[in-house]
TrEMBL record:
Family: Belongs to the DEAD box helicase family.
Name the record gives this protein: DEAD-box ATP-dependent RNA helicase RhpA
Ranges of residues in domain Helicase C-terminal: 230-379
Species name: Pelagibaculum spongiae
Molecular functions (GO terms): ATP binding; hydrolase activity; nucleic acid binding; RNA helicase activity
Gene Ontology terms describing biological process: response to temperature stimulus; ribosome assembly
Family matches, as Gene3D superfamilies: 3.30.70.330, P-loop containing nucleotide triphosphate hydrolases
GO cellular component term, pick one: cytosol
Reactions the enzyme catalyzes: ATP + H2O = ADP + phosphate + H(+)
E.C. designation(s): 3.6.4.13
Keyword terms, alphabetized: ATP-binding, Cytoplasm, Helicase, Hydrolase, Nucleotide-binding
Residues in DEAD-box RNA helicase Q domain copies: 4-32
Length: 460
């Protein structure tokens, strides 16, 4: 018998028998690492991509401890979208085939309230739902979580991306402090660390990451003969590397705008970020970049303060930073959350002193490389997302769940095509897949959000 056999676990015999009938014999890495701790009643943070088998990991844990005779909500599973909630509920029902009279209920936005209220009145053991709709049922006192003993946050990073932090905070307030909390996430940004600290008790951390070397940032230095050659060097890097998201750092506002204009004329998806931008334009620029509806952001160091993008593929220094510490801070924005990042720095002969100073600071020699070759026919990277602006925000009581529901309701677009949702006091931005933008615009313009029609614009 292998160590990864499900039969090695302390699972109820009927669950093991059902696993066998489903053809589940060997645990996946995330199951093998997390299930013993989950079955032991510990809080667990599991980091793994979709398809790693995390649903069965938390599913078996919560089903093993479930008491069917106690007809109360014992488990809440929160998911970012209706599609994922439906998928999770379906998998839980498969895993629970051997448990008689179990009631698993999905509560998601974009679907009518009436049937959900009726189902809730009949009670359930396990609720699977989206944060916005769960919050609404709790506020209207239709859902009682006072006897909850297990909370699962599935794809927690995506829930935060979609702007559900406030809804999550409200939901946590309705449940007992004494409970088991299981959090699964593909990435581990700072916000996730904060949530884990706030709502979990001594969690066991399990990470099944794709293999990569420990050095998550690879640095490249390119020497050019003249200052005017820098823009050609930037083009070569962007065309050869094709980053999904890249920040180019310039030392002055004038150069920031000049580089952005030159790249725009060459067909790159680019915007600039500098101190002359109005707050509204700054918000929109950052929203579009975070939404991945533009791939290149040209910025000064001052303007980029507070720029918190978790999956940045590349940083390009159009010029060397004045100070080695600034250089390290710039390049530290890539290679986060365990992903591989590249940092490319372009310099002229008159910047050799800065280079020597950086060598001393890093404690390693810097070697210039030849610029990457650009094959003929290479085109600038085209983003797969688009950004829609809604002229209603927090002051209009618009929440992420309202926008998600308006987009994915009857004959709407699929939740998997909705990306980041950001809500400001008077307006909101939502990312949708480029392929679904016309359907999303039509759905939002013909429908209502919070019972109102808002002006809707495709901003790029």
């Amino acid at each position: 018998m292998s160590e990864t056999d499900f039969s090695t676990l302390n699972l109820h015999a009927d669950l093991l028998q059902n696993l066998d009938s489903l053809g589940y014999h060997q645990m996946t890495p995330i199951q093998a690492q997390s299930l013993p701790a989950i079955l032991d009643g510990k809080d667990v943070i599991g980091q793994g991509k979709t398809g790693s088998g995390k649903t069965a990991a938390f599913g078996l844990g919560l089903l093993n401890k479930l008491n069917v005779k106690r007809f109360r909500v014992q488990t809440l599973v929160l998911c970012p979208t209706r599609e994922l909630a439906d998928q999770v509920a379906k998998e839980l029902r498969r895993l629970a085939r051997s448990i008689h009279n179990i009631k698993i209920l999905t509560l998601c936005g974009g679907t009518p309230f009436g049937p959900q209220i009726g189902s809730l009145e009949h009670g359930a053991h396990i609720i699977v739902g989206t944060p916005g709709r769960i919050e609404e049922h709790l506020r209207k006192e239709r859902l009682d979580l006072s006897e909850l003993d297990t909370l699962v946050l599935d794809e927690a990073d995506r829930m935060l991306d979609m702007g559900f932090q406030e809804s999550l905070d409200v939901i946590f307030g309705y449940m007992p402090k004494q409970r088991q909390t299981l959090l699964f996430s593909a990435t581990f940004p700072k916000q996730i660390e904060k949530i884990a600290k706030d709502i979990m008790s001594e969690p066991v951390r399990v990470e099944v990451a794709s293999t990569h070397d420990d050095k998550t940032i690879t640095q490249h230095f390119y020497r050019v003969d003249h200052h005017e050659d820098r823009i050609d060097a930037v083009r070569s890097v962007l065309l050869s590397r094709q980053p999904e998201s890249a920040v180019i750092f310039c030392n002055t506002k004038v150069e920031t705008q000049m580089v952005a204009d030159a790249l725009h004329d060459d067909g790159f998806s680019v915007l600039s970020l500098h101190g002359d931008l109005e707050q509204r334009d700054r918000d929109q620029t950052l929203a579009r970049f975070a939404n991945k509806s533009i791939s290149v952001l040209v910025a000064t160091d001052v303007a980029a303060r507070g720029l918190d993008i978790d999956s940045l593929d590349a940083v390009i220094n159009y010029q060397m930073a004045y100070d080695p510490e600034i250089h390290v801070h710039r390049i530290g924005r890539t290679g986060r959350a365990g992903s591989q990042g590249i940092a490319c720095s372009i310099y002229c002969e008159n910047e050799i002193r800065k280079l020597i100073s950086l060598e001393d600071y890093l404690g390693q020699p810097i070697k210039a490389e030849a610029l990457p070759a650009v094959k003929s026919g290479m085109e600038p990277y085209r983003p797969g997302m688009a950004t829609i602006r809604i002229e209603g925000g927090k002051k209009d009581k618009v929440r992420p769940g309202d926008i998600l529901g308006a987009l994915t309701g009857d004959s709407g677009i699929e939740g998997k095509y909705v990306g980041k949702i950001q809500i400001f006091p008077f307006y909101a931005y939502v990312a949708v897949a480029e392929r679904s933008v016309s359907g999303a615009l039509a759905k939002l313009r013909s429908g209502k959000i919070k019972g109102r029609h808002f002006k809707i614009r495709h901003v790029g």
